[in-house]
Structure formats: C-alpha cells, structure tokens
Protein 1
Amino acid sequence: MKQITRLVDAVASVMQQISGVLIVAMMVTVLLDVTTRFVFKVTDGGIDLTFIGGIEIIKYGLLFTILFALPYCVDRSQVVVDLFTERLSERQKSFLEGIYFLGYTLLGAGMTVRFYEAIHAAVMSGTTTQDLLIPMNYIYALTMFATAMLAIRALLVAKQRFCTAMGFSA
C-alpha cells in the first residue's frame, strides 16, 4: 500500500509541476496577445501578428492549472478554524479530517464519472473547441484523469487520517 501511495504522490507532484508550467504559459500567452494587438493597432493593421485561440489557451490552461494542482495540494492547503476544534483531541481532529477528505474523494469521483460520460458524448458528436479545433474528448479525458487523481489522493489521505485517529501506522 505504501508503494501505491508513493506512486500517487509522485504523479501528483509531477502534475503540480505541470500546473506551474501552465501558469507561466498562460502569462506568456496573455503578454503575446496584448503585445500583438497593440502592434496591430499602432500600425493601423499594417503589421498583423495577432493569433487566434489565445482565449482558449488561457481558458483551458486555467482549467488544467487548477485541476493539476488540486491532487498535490489537497492535504497541504486546508484552513482549520481552531475555534471549532480547540477542545478536540488530536485523534478526534484526525478523524474529522478523514471525513473531510472523504468529501474530496466523493467530489473527485463524481466529477470523474461525469467527465467520463462527457468523453463519450464528445466522441459521438465530434465536438471541438471553437478556435483551435481541438477535439473536446481529449480535453475531457485529461480533465477526467486530473479529477480521478484528486479522488485517489484524497482517499489515500483520508485513510492515513483515519489510521492516525485509530492509532495505527499509516
């Protein structure tokens, strides 16, 4: 089980790094888009370096930036309000955290199922993105992978929290 956890953690870490690359790519895309539009305007259309699909690159880049960061950050970036948990023992806190992460597991699993269904619908209809004409089933498949990783990682974190609450080694 520890090998599976290490593998999932490694994949989530790589996804987190891809998320960082995507955010930089989004920034560069915005910079290029604004610059080329400015050049186009200043030259009254004489120099046209504008490109199509910038908005789609940003839109899907943001989607994957968030979805690829979630599996890695699911157990690292939670805000705990001590006002509600200050009188609880560490075991009780771990148990509550386990329930909380089971909620993330259900969220990720539910989204994974819906995107699996969306893949089939996109294949049957041949839907593509508006400007770049990327088949939507590819985007849905990548999204399904990311949400499945969220569900798996949240489940493993929940298991670890429950083991801590019960006094077992995870």
Protein 2
Amino acid sequence: MTEKTIEIIEEEIIEEFSLFDSWDDKYEYIIDLGKKLPVLPSVHKIDENRVRGCQSTVWLVAERRGDRVYYQADSDSVIVKGLISMLIRVLSGQRADDIIEAKLGFIQAIGMTTHLAQTRSNGLVAMVKQMKSYAMAFKLMDKSSG
C-alpha cells in the first residue's frame, strides 16, 4: 500500500467539506472529527507538551518511527480538538521534510481562515508551527547523528 501524500489527504478534506452547505454543518463535522481523535494518555498532558499561543489548552506530542513523524494531541475545546485532528490526519505519518515543506492550503480552501475567530486562527497557526518544529527537531537529530 502506498502512503498518501500530504496533498492527497488535503484534497480529501477539501472534498469532504464541500459536501456541507452551511458553516453550522462544517462546525458539527469538525466537532465530530475531534470526538474521533484517539485519547491522549494523561502522562502526556503536561505543561511542556502544551502548545503556546492557543487560547484553549492543547497538548501535542510527536514521535519518530523510522523516517516518519507521528503526532498525538488533545484539547479541552471541542472545536480545537477537531482542528488538531485534521492536522494530525494530514501530517502524521509523513516524512519530516514533507511536514516542514507542507503548505497546508486546505486550511484556507475549506474556509477556516475566514470563519475562525482571530484567537482560534492564532491557535491553529501555533499548532501548525509546533508540528513543524517537532519535524525540524527530528530532522536536526538525524543530521547530528549522521
């Protein structure tokens, strides 16, 4: 089975969102996505795993398996949990370089940049930044050990 690229997953999300007519329906869908997010073990819900810049509390952890980066996250906000679940769907299991280079155009394509409150938008940017930081850290570890 071939791994899906970031772009293919983004296209799938854009397609899923195009099925909804109203923003109420889109928000419901985002909340549903958040409910499906696997539970983050409480051992990871510590201050050093918190995403800075989010109004809500968001915990994000990353691990590397082989040449791929995998994320787990949780939030105390149902909307934010849905947003992070989409980011995980797009970025988790990808190579560090691909994560760092990802444009994540789906965020704008599904209307997130215009429909989120400014504080949520800032939080979304902070989550993306943190995910890319983890990928960069793994990449730098490779360089220093290689």
Protein 3
Amino acid sequence: MKSLLPRLLLGWLATAVLGLGTALAQAPEDTERPLLRLERIDDAIWLSTQLQFDLSPAVVDALHKGIPIFFVAEADVLRERWYWTNKRIVTAKRQFRLAYQPLTNRWRLNITSGEFVEPALGLALNQSFESWKEALATVRRITRWKIADTPELKANASYLVAFRFRLDLTQLPRPLQIGTLGQSDWSVELAGEQLLEAGPGQ
C-alpha cells in the first residue's frame, strides 16, 4: 500500500498538469483581434480599423483624478521573405493622450505621430469631449491613417502589415508605474495582421 500511494499521487499530478496544458491549448483565441482595412490612395498606404476594448474602473478612476492616460498604435510594413525572417520596411506610430480638465469639466484628447513632448501638444490634433466615453470612442476608431508611401515598396513583392495597440504604462507617473506592475486592470493590448497586395512598379 505504501509503494502504491506515491504512484497514485504521481499519476494524479500528471493528469492535473496534462489537463491544465490541454485547457491552455484549447483556450479561445483573442476575440478582440482588430480587423484591418488597407487602402492604396494617392501613392500612400492607409490603415483603418475599429478597436474593441474597454477601460477598467481603476483606469477610469485615475483619469478622474487628473492623471493623463496614453495609448500607442504602431504599424509595421514588413516584406515577406521565404529564405529569412520578414524585413521591416517602415514603421508608423500614433499616440493618444486622454486627460480630464476639471476647470471646464471636459475631456481632452491629443493625437500625434511620434513621441509626445509637452510643449508640442499644440501641434497635435486636439479634440474636446463632454465625457471620457466619447473620447474613448474616437481612440477606438482609426480611419485612414497613413502608414507608408508606396514608393518605399517594391513592385510585385509580398508585404504584411503588423498592427499593435496598447495602453502605454511608461507614460504614467513613476509611483503609478510601480503600482500597476502585473495588474491586469491596466493591460490593454491588441494586435492584428493583414496582407498587403503588391502594387505597380515605381
């Protein structure tokens, strides 16, 4: 009986681990994967998508306390290569800064390309909203964002557009950055890919 017990426990543990591995393998894929729409207009590649995500109560509470929240959208145009890894041709970046203005009781959304620098906020696209939900709806909707110029792409080559969107925790105040480590409430990450049809020669 003593020799049988360890084997029974070992068998139970193996079954539990196997069951966990199967559950993880069968977990549904990310249902929030964005669908990308790519267009070639006026010698440029334009990306449109409708993002599906919500903000947790912790993020909304931080917003109401006057802490700006930053989102980052990135799009890589990759040339597919059968003999090696895909080559990055160009990267486009767009940042969103959402903040509450208590004096006016309104929400301000700044959208810019590249990095945010406080004195340069006036050069960004600035919009004002009555609620954070209205502002967030604008963040979710990306329409005709120019991600590349067609002269940068070779004719008859296969390209892939890899899109990423996330809540940028590095832009938060340092104490809040430390407090949000490992917190799922502060995790907003979406990603998707779309093939880009080969265009005409230059």
